[in-house]
Please model this.
Amino acid sequence: MSLSKKINNLLQELHSLDNGRADNNAQCNVINRGVALLSHKISKMHSQHFVQALIELNNYAENLARSGIADISDDIFTFADVMDDDGLGNTDIPIKAILNISNHNVHANFSDTARQG
Model:
C-alpha cells in the first residue's frame, strides 16, 4: 500500500483533521505546562533536596512495581503484535516479548522483536 493511501486511510479514520490536530496540540500544551511547572519547582529547590526527592520517587516506584509483580504467579508469558509502520516506510514490524516471572523478578526477552534502525 502506498504512503499516500495509508495517509488517506488514517485521515478517514479521524473524525476530522482539525480534531486530530486539536488533540495533538492539547497534549503538547499539557506536556509543556507540566515541564514549566516542574522546572519552576526544581529551580526553587536546593540541589541536594532535588536529588533526595528523585531517590525517594525512584524507591516508591520500585516498591510499587515489586508489589505488583509479587501478585503474579511464577510463569512465562508471551506477547506478539505487529506495528503497522514506523513512519519511515517499514511496515508490519514484529514486536515479540517473552516475560519470565520467577521469584518476584521479571526477565523480559525482546530478542525476536524487529531491530531498530
Strands lie at 75-85, 91-102, 105-109. The longest helix spans residues 17-43. The first strand starts at residue 75 and ends at 85. The chain has three helices and three strands.
